[in-house]
Amino acid sequence: MAISFPWFYGSKPLLLFHVSILLISGLSLGTGTGTGTVDYGSDEVFADVLRDEAVDRIHQLSKISDGDGYLERTFLSPASIRAANLILSWMQDAGLRTWVDPMGNVHGRTESVNPTAEALLIGSHLDTVIDAGMYDGTLGIICAISALKVLKNTGKLDELVRPVEVIAFSDEEGVRFQTTFLGSAAIAGILPESALKISDKNGVTVEEVLKENSFEATEESLTQVKYDPKSVWGYIELHIEQGPLLESLGYPLGVVKGIAGQTRLKVIVRGSQGHAGTVPMFMRQDPMAASAELIILLESLCKHPENFLTYDEKCGGFPKESLTGLVCTVGEISSWPSASNVIPGQVNFTIDLRAIDDMAREAIMLEFSNRAQQICNKRMVNCTIDRKHNAEAVKCDPLLSEQLKYAARSALGKMSTEAANYQHEIPVLMSGAGHDSMAMSHLTKIGMLFIRCRGGVSHSPDEFVLDDDVGAAGLALLKFLQNNMMISVT
């Protein structure tokens, strides 16, 4: 059995929950703009910018697509370039100095009374999956621009105590090159030069795509993208939850405690190809039947890990709570030659494994690997397991999380018709989805704010966020800036 360990970091779906909150009744998401009235302050420009204009801009970006009749923007595609140019114009409208770095990331920065101070970075991604929803990534970028535009419109932009920079990352989803976080990993300094040689399904490399768009695509250019950790104070990301918990609790916003570690495996099972009608059952070396048994093993292992693992910490095990929210997914499966009258000669399938605790995740993978070898030996087939992606779990900074929680509570307190409901603690969640924050954690401390979405649906055209929740997210970020980044608190 071969197990290989590559250089790069995790990817995206599913959601793990850790919640510290009293369960309360609250809003449910319909199809309208919202059920509560948000008091944005005495100046109506707050609502105009944080909600109305922000929502309009999200809709504008949703129309910029490489797909015909569906939303698709991949790394440096024609639609991504058009979206980047539009985002640049909105950053300039907010009074920010703008540029595009050699990896296609879009930057908008405002200096402060102390331009040499460590900068606060706020960001998310402008790329999408295929047949995407309009809020994933986009919402975080637009809310950040909107909050800074409010400071500009109210004459407060020059009162920031440190530079604030909004970044729209060029690639987070990894759709085109099957490698996530190209944009944020470059800024964090964890993208190796070898990434430039990765090719897409058409054989076009990252390097060639960059050169097509007038970027240098050299080791030196990657060095230029990398930020000095001493120049950065912290990183904040606003993102839709991509899960159903906030909606079930009736809260528009939640604070992220951390991001689950992720492992992606490719399993290759090789057997003996043969005629479906002439090879007796007891003589078959069937990789499809073996793969079915392996997948059932994986499901049992992740549903009932207590039946397979030792939890006694004194005897070298780990706490049972380490596996809270453990999820395993087989998302792709294929066979060769894939004919109805042929016993397959080879079956390939993928495994996506996520857990809050890195040691527990490794234990699950090791247990699966050992038992998989036993099953394959019993069935007289060959089994290879390759590790394709690996990302350690990431914890959000406790102080930054508290500051975001206070800002979210202040923003939700403005939702006048539901204000009484939001006097309880803001929900605290673990994310099972990978975000740019995972890469940025290698550069600086991170904090994340989740925004609820209807039914927890994401990576789908049915992805939906209430207009008022978009406004509440922008207001929470504005409150964060006012509370922590201003000379005087307003």
UniProtKB/TrEMBL annotation:
The protein here is known as: allantoate deiminase
Q: Which residues form the Peptidase M20 dimerisation domain?
A: 261-376
Which stretch is the leader sequence?
1-30
Which GO cellular component terms, listed alphabetically, does the Swiss-Prot or TrEMBL entry include? endoplasmic reticulum
This entry's Enzyme Commission designation comes to 3.5.3.9
The Swiss-Prot or TrEMBL record lists the needed cofactor(s) as: Mn(2+)
What family is this?
Belongs to the peptidase M20A family.
